[in-house]
Design brief:
Elements lengths: L5 H8 L21 E7 L7 E12 L7 E11 L5 E12 L7 E8 L22 E3 L7 E8 L11 E8 L5 E9 L3 E11 L9 E11 L4 E3 L2 E6 L11 E4 L4 E4 L11 E3 L14
Antiparallel strand pairs: 1-10, 1-13, 2-7, 2-11, 3-4, 3-10, 4-5, 5-6, 7-8, 8-9, 11-12, 11-15, 13-16, 14-15
């Protein structure tokens, strides 16, 4: 599925109203038929990253034959301090009834002017023959490390496409490379973790947990991500009002079909990062 960069993505979705009142039944009337919720990384104005990773665990799998997608989205750029947009891509697990066991993995993206990114042919099969979505068995309750990494070294004067690899590492330490995408950007300048449920708002609750988000900067420093910002798709844009992003002892969980406890726009300290949430200034 092709999506805009996280900045435009954020603007298009609008501000969800953090209150629990709103749409809690029926299919989401959004443009793509899904209800979405998002956690945007605080990258502290870094010049860019050459790798981003996070651990994803499906806490409660869906029980209906609808598509659910949980992904790590990266926004690419190139040029001086990463100021020239270069599209984006998303890596994640899917509950997809048309794939074996209803489990799949997706690594796909888009160019800044529109159209999908090209890439290598995945070694994984695909029940639907989709270049982005491949058959991959995953199990609820197991942690999977999602990693988006630059394969080629950074260039002083970037020209041509750079390979960006999407890979998934399971709890045994086995890494599955989904494939490489060809991107005209040499760094990541924005990251969002999100859930999309192509299901009715009242369908049984499903949930995932995101934990231990880290980045490797363009100069090779490994840094933990201290904070994430909460966003819910607004009622006007088709979002369900009974979704929630809530911290626990391990990470930040995203749930469907629950009472919303964390308001729109909340900045959450990532558990384990040692970060404090800044106190807003005011009278």
């Amino acid at each position: 599925m092709v999506r805009p960069s996280w900045r435009r993505f954020w603007d298009l979705l609008g501000a969800g109203d953090g209150a629990p009142a709103g749409r809690t039944h029926g299919d989401p009337p959004s443009a793509n038929g899904a209800s979405s919720l998002h956690l945007r990384w605080d990258l502290d104005d870094r010049p860019g990253c050459r790798e981003v990773s996070v651990t994803l665990e499906v806490l409660q799998p869906p029980t209906v034959d609808r598509l659910y997608f949980w992904a790590l989205q990266a926004d690419f750029a190139t040029g001086d301090a990463g100021r020239r947009p270069a599209g984006g891509a998303h890596l994640g697990l899917q509950w997809h009834p048309q794939h074996p066991g209803s489990t799949a993995v997706n690594w796909g993206g888009y160019r800044p002017g529109g159209g999908e990114l090209s890439g290598t042919v995945s070694a994984l099969p695909s029940a639907l023959g989709n270049v982005n979505t491949r058959d991959m068995r995953w199990r609820p309750g197991e942690p999977y490390r999602l990693t988006i990494s630059r394969v080629e070294p950074i260039r002083a004067e970037p020209t041509g496409a750079v390979r960006w690899r999407g890979s998934v590492t399971d709890s045994s330490g086995t890494t599955t490379v989904v494939r490489d995408l060809f991107v005209e950007g040499d760094r990541i300048v924005g990251v969002v973790m999100w859930s999309e449920a192509f299901a009715r708002c009242e369908h049984p609750s499903a949930g995932v947990r995101w934990s231990d988000p880290t980045a490797v900067t363009v100069d090779g420093r490994l840094v933990p991500i201290p904070r994430v910002s909460v966003n819910y798709q607004s009622h006007a844009d088709g979002g369900c009002a009974n979704t929630d992003s809530r911290p626990d002892a391990t990470g930040v969980a995203q749930w469907t079909a629950v009472t919303r406890t964390v308001a729109q726009g909340t900045v959450l300290a990532v558990p384990g990062s040692g970060a404090a949430v800044p106190v807003p200034s005011g009278p």
